[in-house]
Design goal:
Uridine Diphospho-n-acetylenolpyruvylglucosamine Reductase, domain 1, five-stranded mixed sheet, Uridine Diphospho-n-acetylenolpyruvylglucosamine Reductase, domain 2, 8 helices, alpha+beta, about 30% strand, about 25% helix
Length: about 350
């Protein structure tokens, strides 16, 4: 095997590069801050017969202890603002921290992203998962996503319709490894109109500016979610399941919300009713105040996380007949990942 291209190194430590705080090590890895480095790293993996994973901030993944793969940390930086097409166009490199991007736009008095404040991860990972919070999803504001198409190793721009966005879903997620995200372009309206449909924003009846909503969003997140910088976690661990109206009627103790395709149920409530608030397995536990959050109470292993998550899924399935889908992606030795939080 030819030596890996700079800046890849063998036995790359990922312990400090995932918000769940799991010990992990990749066979090769490195921080990549140019498109050419991403291509070189992916092609090296291909020649070596190894999977290639491209990570952002490591906030939406569960890492295996030993990953027999090449792992690149996408660190392409840069952000730009321009007035265009009756609004504001924001471009950002894949490695830009998402929350910093939101705070930057709101600090300039530009609205549209304030409901998405406080979400960890990077701008490049945001479209893969189609991040969303407090009634807004990235798909509401994204104009295009810049990628490297590994089918021919060429740069390509995917429009919003090309991305096939859905609830915590996109074409980028459907075709893992096909597209390596290098940047995003967002289009925000010139005339700001606050989105207050989420119950958590009931106190913001007459906001005067985006900063007011952002402050409320950040306060709500602090009250509901442990800070990953002090308590390792990957945010919401399961998707809120969408079930048929008939299935929802058989679970009267859980209030759902009508959506396209059925009724969306709060996964946290299902877990709570199954007794998972505070439930622990080894170093992994569900939060005492929010059963949807699985966190690292100290020294958690990937086996602890997997076993605790599987037991929760089994309990919800047996009691309610509902399948919970894990939100953080499992990063191991197989498959190619185009971009993760």
């Amino acid at each position: 095997m030819r030596p890996p291209p700079v800046p890849l190194v063998p036995e790359f430590d990922l312990g400090g590069r995932n918000t769940l705080g799991l010990r992990s090590r990749a066979r090769f890895g490195g921080v990549l801050n140019e498109e050419g480095q991403i291509v070189a790293a992916a092609q090296f993996a291909e020649r070596a017969g190894l999977p290639f994973h491209l990570l952002g901030g490591g906030s939406n993944c569960v890492l295996a202890d030993e990953i027999d793969a090449v792992v690149g940390i996408a660190d392409l930086r840069g952000r730009r603002l321009e007035r265009a097409d009756g609004g504001v166009r924001i471009t950002a490199g894949a490695g830009e921290p998402w929350d910093e991007l939101v705070r930057w736009t709101v600090g300039l008095g530009i609205g549209g992203l304030e409901n998405l404040a406080g979400i960890p991860g990077t701008a490049g990972a945001a479209p893969v998962q189609n991040i969303g919070a407090f009634g807004v999803e990235l798909s509401d504001v994204v104009e295009s996503v810049d990628v490297i198409d590994t089918a021919n190793w060429s740069p390509r721009r995917l429009t919003a319709p090309d991305c096939g966005f859905g609830y915590r879903y996109s074409r980028l997620k459907k075709e893992p490894g096909r597209f390596l995200v290098t940047g995003i372009t967002l289009h925000l309206p010139a005339e700001w109109s606050p989105v207050l449909s989420h119950d958590g924003l009931g106190c913001c009846a007459y906001p005067s500016c985006p900063a007011e909503i952002m402050a409320t969003v950040l306060a709500r997140r602090r009250a509901r979610l442990p800070d990953w910088r002090t308590t390792g976690n990957a945010g919401s661990f399961f998707h809120n399941p969408v079930v048929s109206v008939a299935a929802a009627s058989r679970i009267p103790e859980v209030s759902g919300r009508a959506v396209s395709g059925g009724v969306k149920l709060p996964a946290g409530k299902l877990l709570d009713l199954c007794g998972f608030r505070g439930k622990r397995r080894g170093g992994a536990a569900f939060c005492e105040t929010n059963a949807l959050i699985l966190f690292n109470v100290g020294g958690a292993t990937v086996a602890d996380v997997d076993e605790l998550a599987a037991s929760a899924q089994k309990a919800v399935r047996l009691r309610f007949g509902v399948d919970l889908v894990q939100e953080p992606s499992r990063v191991g030795n197989r498959g190619l990942i185009g971009g993760l939080n």
